[in-house]
Structures are given as structure tokens and as C-alpha cells.
């Protein structure tokens, strides 16, 4: 099928499909091209794109997706291997959540300081919280 049909069937955009191809998540060889050099996408590529889409929805990065696709390609995407990758991702997300909570606390405290202490002599001046420690 041509890319237009693939777009309809996968819900991905042409740009996204081309981006995934550029980054090696899918590949179309010379023999999968028509005489006019149009790419002919197989049902295997459509299935692979659905896998990429599913993994993206799980929050995996493109590099992580590439690693998982490699496991699938060499038939090593066992439950044990996949569970390990998911555990790594959950640990990474937990760290990011803690970091975001910390940033939120800093912002909330800055907002409180700004509201309580921000009285520049000229209301048109920059907020002092951005340029000094209150």
C-alpha cells in the first residue's frame, strides 16, 4: 500500500511515518518500491507501525522503542526482557515525578514570595523575584 493508505489505516501522519523511517524504526528497501519509485508499504510495516504507536502511547522514547523493536526482531522480547524494560521505565518516571514535584514546590514558594513581597517602586518594573532573591 502507498503511504496515503497507510496514513488512513494507522492514524499516523505522512511526516510521522517518514520520521520513523528516517530514524530506522521502519525500513523500506529498494525492492519495495514501484517503478515510479513510490514506496510500497507491506502489512508487516503496518503492524510494525502499530507496535511503534502502542509503545509511544506507553511513554517510551524513540530510542527505547528502537531497543524494544530490536528485541522483537531477534525474537528476544520475552516477558522477562520486556518486564525489565518496563521496570526501568517506571523507575525513570518515578525519578522524573519526584523532580517535577520538587520544581513545583520551588515555583509555588516563589509565587507566594512574589505575591507577599513583590512591591516594586514602579509597577512597570520587572518583578524582583526574577532578578534577585526575595
From TrEMBL:
Coiled coil: none annotated. It holds the Pfam family MerR_1. Residues 1-71 form the HTH merR-type domain. InterPro entries: DNA-bd_dom_put_sf (IPR009061), MerR-type_HTH_dom (IPR000551), MerR_fam (IPR047057). It comes from the Bacteria. Keywords: DNA-binding, Transcription, Transcription regulation. This is MerR family transcriptional regulator. The lineage of its organism: Bacteria, Pseudomonadati, Bacteroidota, Sphingobacteriia, Sphingobacteriales.
Amino acid at each position: 500500500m502507498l503511504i496515503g493508505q497507510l496514513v488512513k489505516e494507522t492514524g499516523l501522519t505522512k511526516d510521522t511515518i517518514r520520521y520513523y523511517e528516517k530514524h530506522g524504526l521502519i525500513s523500506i528497501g529498494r525492492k519495495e518500491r514501484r517503478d515510479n519509485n513510490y514506496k510500497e508499504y507491506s502489512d508487516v510495516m503496518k503492524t510494525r507501525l502499530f507496535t511503534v504507536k502502542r509503545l509511544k502511547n506507553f511513554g517510551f522514547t524513540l530510542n527505547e522503542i528502537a531497543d524494544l523493536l530490536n528485541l522483537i526482531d531477534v525474537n528476544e522480547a520475552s516477558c522477562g526482557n520486556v518486564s525489565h524494560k518496563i521496570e526501568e521505565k517506571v523507575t525513570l518516571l518515578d525519578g522524573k515525578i519526584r523532580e517535577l514535584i520538587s520544581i513545583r514546590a520551588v515555583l509555588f514558594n516563589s509565587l507566594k514570595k512574589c505575591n507577599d513581597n513583590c512591591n516594586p517602586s514602579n509597577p512597570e518594573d520587572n518583578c524582583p523575584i526574577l532578578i534577585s532573591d526575595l
